[in-house]
Amino acid sequence: MWMLSFVPDALLYAVVIGIMFSGIALYVISFFTRFIPPLIPYSGIARILGTILTVVGIYFYGSYSTEMDWRAKVEELESKVAVAEQQSKDANSKIQTVVKEKIKYVKETRVVIQEHIKTVEAKIDSMCKVAPEAVDILNEAAATPGAKK
Amino acid sequence: MKKLLIALTILLLTGCAMFQKPVPVKRNFPSVPTELVESCPDLKKTEPTEKLSEVLKVVVDNYGQYHECKIKVDTWVEWYNTQKNIFESVK
Questions:
Q1: A48 sits in which H/E element
Q2: CA separation for the pair A142, A136 (Å, rounded)
Q3: Distance of residue B67 Cα from the nearest chain A Cα, in angstroms
Q4: Each residue of B42-55: pLDDT tens digit?
Q5: Is A1 in the B-facing interface, judged by CB distances under 8 Å?
Q6: What residues have CB less than 8 Å from A21, skipping those under 6 apart?
Q7: Is the ipTM above a cut-off of 0.90?
Q8: Entry pTM
Q9: Does residue A95 contact residue B33 with C-beta atoms inside 8 Å?
Q10: For A90-102, how does the pLDDT look when each residue is reduced to its tens digit (9 = 90+)?
Q11: Hey, which residues does A2 pair with through a beta bridge?
Q12: Cα–Cα distance between A26 and A16 in angstroms, integer?
């Protein structure tokens, strides 16, 4: 069946319609053969053949319509997916810009605070002396829970 | 004969429409901004010291790291919700 995808749509349609109408034509002609004596023996065969061709033609026409419907659905969905992928890229680009700006702002703020500490460093250190236990507790709290020491 | 022919034709014509198949269209998983796939670093530890200013510097750095990680986590949530909405809009 997949080989049919290589056949041009118009040709496929022409073949399907051809089979269907050939069958109908043969079926109709089979009624007139009874008036032509040399063709009378072929009347029954023509009718059977006409019937088979008509049924096969209708079947092919149904298959052709279904195939075309599927192709249309695939094309429609592919275009929707393409739009969604573009939207996704645009959203990513926007998110990336925002996150970069936010992280940059946090880093800049940290530098400003560190500079502020330097200006009051002497004052802070003269008024307070940190006990070693305080540093140990702080480091204990900063350690990643469950991590190997 | 005619009734059989009609029944056969109807059966043949409805046969294809009886089964709903999923439409075979390939979809790519959306990429994630590189900033979000970087893991958050461990918190910094203070060197043994008596100076409060040194302790304060480490604490400030750790606060900064927390804020960066918070931004990443919040952005992950925003990224997921945005991409989910886009994904679900295609039907």
A1: helix A43-119
A2: 10
A3: 7
A4: 999 999 999 999 99
A5: no
A6: A57
A7: no
A8: 0.70
A9: yes
A10: 999 999 999 999 9
A11: none
A12: 15
